[in-house]
From TrEMBL, chain A:
SMART domains recorded: AAA
Keyword terms: ATP-binding, Nucleotide-binding, Transport
Similarity comment text for this entry: Belongs to the ABC transporter superfamily.
Pfam family, one: ABC_tran
Protein name stated in the entry: ATP-binding cassette domain-containing protein
Keyword Transport found: yes
Organism: Cryobacterium luteum
GO MF, one annotated term: ATP binding
SUPFAM superfamilies hit by this protein: P-loop containing nucleoside triphosphate hydrolases
UniProtKB/TrEMBL annotation, chain B:
Example of a GO cellular component annotation carried by this entry: plasma membrane
MF GO annotations: ABC-type transporter activity
Superkingdom per UniProt: Bacteria
Protein name as annotated: ABC transporter permease
Record Pfam families: ABC2_membrane_4
Native source organism of the sequence: Cryobacterium luteum
């Protein structure tokens, strides 16, 4: 296993922004802004229309319209089996869509895959390598597959990619001796062999320890800061919550919600939570204010009183004042933003009863 | 998808270019010949003439002409026959077995490891990948037959007298010319195996389980040879890829008869065309789900 050291995923200080340099631009032709929030409608890194994939009678992906703005960090959410990986396979021209169209970086896929894929780094459904080759030899091998990848810089690029994911010490080890986390890192290194305009990362933190997960987050942020669009599929909501600017939620092959993370959250309610021994009093005061309080479902003796704000004109501090004036002893008061998890569960179903 | 795979990318749009994609072939050969499995098969091939020569050397009884595999009775008189005898022994089963392993592994092996999706996303190009994989398998055919030939010549020279070789036609040729003929036999056997290698490549595009593709390829070669000995199917025989496998005896006559070489090449070319087209049409539209 890897010895823990801070910053195994190095921040890529030596890489130039395309807008900063004319000579080092390499593959990059599109000078695009870092996350600006206001992305023009036409400037999408990934756009699909009515994208559908059927396997026999089963519809794995059902007419989805994906819109991933350039420069965004886009979270692609959904329970297992909701069609995320099938969608990614269609985006990368690994499988053919049954119907519908996809365009990636402004080119239609799969017709223009030779123009698009050199600019796309991908980690699809887990890392896969030749177990009998070393980590560095694996990266060199996969790099030769891209006929635009210069052989002169191959060694240096492989070194740099390994350094970025903190695998330099294991570069000459055979991959069959790698742990799952190390393979995952090597998979990310493979996606970073060339400067990319788009990174498609399918469950990038799978198998990583908490440190590794944090480092992937840092890496994704630094790539996004350089202007790379990052498309991350995940079912880890905390992860998406922390790094993404946009997200789409899939359920049973359809997109059930899509947009900026802030817009996605707005589907839920901001709530106030009052911790008090005087629950009856709290409910009375809150009801008097026009709210609809209820006791939080909890086993403890002193249960919290929760009230959704739902556009109420009351400011939280005014609610506290009213509670105190009403003789309610307050042990804790919290304004709760709706969590992505609640939205996610509301959209895709509870527990194992996810829509199939 | 199929039309896009063969299109040459516009160099104005993609300014940085590698060496026209030859790197992938180099890498394919490096991976193939760095595998222990490949070396094990080549060592086994090299052992065939060695076992044969040692057995003949150690046995005191002299063989009557015609007993045992062809040429075996001549080995004691001239070591240069070890290679020919070993080729006759190896071609019905052992060489097809190794070709089956290599050709069956081409696409299915990458699919089984999951590296196929990363090669295609790189993007390797499906047609280019098929070509590189086939060339890799063909190079293995050549290396395998050369290994057998060289090993046979060396062990023959070490254990038996070497001198001018009396051909099947009764003529005698010099040692140097007999070595040339050995290389010609190696070339003949290599060509003989090219059709089977393409069949293996096609089968390999059908599955994600490399062992299945390997076994199926070997089975195909065995079935072809069984069909070849059923007299009722004589109309089919000239079209079996294995029909001319043992025809290299014609190369041991004076004057040199290249007729069977040509017929063999034509049959193999037919198999290349048919199974190459099948592999192409299957692979360019295949959903990569591995």
């Amino acid at each position: 296993m890897v010895a823990f050291s801070p910053g195994r995923f190095r921040s890529p200080g030596c890489r130039q922004r395309p807008s900063d340099s004319s000579g080092n631009a390499g593959h990059r032709r599109d000078v695009h802004d870092a996350v600006t929030g206001a992305t023009p409608e036409g400037d999408l890194a990934i756009e699909s229309r009515g994208l559908t994939k059927r396997f026999g009678k089963q519809t794995a992906v059902n007419s989805i319209d994906l819109a991933v703005p350039r420069g965004s960090v886009f979270g692609f959410l959904g329970p297992n089996g909701s069609g995320k990986t099938t969608t990614i396979r269609m985006l990368l021209a690994l499988t053919q869509a049954t119907s519908g169209t996809v365009s990636v970086l402004g080119h239609s896929m799969p017709a223009r895959l030779h123009h698009v894929l050199p600019r796309v780094g991908a980690l699809v459904e887990g890392p896969a390598f030749y177990p009998f080759l070393s980590g560095a030899a694996n990266l060199r091998r996969l790099d030769t597959a891209d006929r635009h990848a210069s052989s002169n810089t191959r060694g240096a690029r492989v070194q740099f990619a390994l350094e970025r994911v903190g695998l330099t010490h294991a570069a000459d080890k055979k991959v069959h001796a790698y742990s799952l986390g190390m393979k995952q890192r090597l998979g990310i290194a493979n996606a970073l062999l060339l400067p990319r305009d788009l990174l498609v990362l399918d469950e990038p933190t799978n198998g990583l320890d908490p440190q590794g997960t944090r480092e992937v987050r840092t890496l994704v942020r630094s790539l996004a800061a350089e202007g790379t669009t990052v498309f991350v599929s995940s079912h880890l909501l905390a992860e998406v919550d922390q790094i993404c600017t946009h997200a789409a939620v899939m359920s049973a092959g359809s997109i059930v919600a899509q947009g900026t993370l802030a817009a996605l959250r707005q589907g839920g309610d901001t709530r106030v939570r009052v911790r008090t021994p005087d629950t009856a009093g709290a409910v009375r005061v809150l009801t008097h204010l026009g709210l609809e309080p209820f006791l939080a479902p909890d086993d403890r003796a002193d249960r919290d009183v929760v009230a959704p704000l739902r556009g109420s004109q009351w400011q939280p501090e005014a609610i506290v004042t009213a509670l105190v004036a009403g003789g309610v002893r307050i042990r804790g008061f919290l304004v709760e933003e709706p969590s992505l998890e609640e939205r996610f569960v509301a959209l895709t179903g509870e527990g194992f009863d996810v829509v199939q | 998808m199929s039309s896009s795979d063969v299109s040459v990318p516009n160099s104005a749009e993609v300014p940085v270019r590698g060496r026209g994609g030859w790197d992938l072939l180099g890498s394919e050969l490096a991976v193939l010949f760095r595998r222990r499995r490949t070396w094990a098969m080549l060592v086994a091939i090299a052992l065939i003439p060695i076992l044969l020569a040692v057995a003949v050397r150690l046995s005191s009884s002299t063989l009557n002409p015609g007993e045992g595999p062809p040429f075996l009775d001549r080995v004691t008189q001239n070591g240069l026959f070890v290679g020919f005898t070993a080729m006759v022994v190896a071609i019905p089963l052992f060489l097809p077995l190794t070709i089956g392993v290599v050709a069956g592994d081409t696409i299915a092996g990458e699919a089984g490891l999951g590296t196929l999706r990363y090669l295609l996303v790189a993007p390797a190009g499906r047609v280019r990948l098929l070509l590189v994989k086939y060339v890799g398998a063909a190079v293995f055919c050549l290396v395998a037959t050369l290994t057998l030939t060289v090993s046979g010549a060396l062990i023959g020279a070490a254990l038996f007298p070497v001198g001018p070789v009396t051909l099947l036609s009764g003529d005698t040729i010099s040692v140097a010319e007999s070595l040339l003929r050995s290389l010609l036999v190696a070339a003949y056997v290599t060509v003989s195996l090219l059709g089977l290698a393409m069949i293996g490549l096609f089968i390999s595009t059908l599955t994600d389980v490399p062992v299945g593709a390997m076994a199926a390829t070997v089975v195909v070669s065995v079935v072809a040879q069984i069909l070849d000995v059923i007299p009722q199917l004589s109309w089919l025989h000239p079209w079996l890829f294995s029909h001319y496998w043992l025809g290299f005896a014609d190369l041991l006559r004076q004057p040199l008869d290249l007729g069977s070489f040509g017929q063999n090449a034509i049959v193999q070319a037919c198999y290349l065309a048919v199974f190459g087209a099948l592999a192409y049409s299957r692979f360019v539209t295949k959903d990569i789900l591995s």
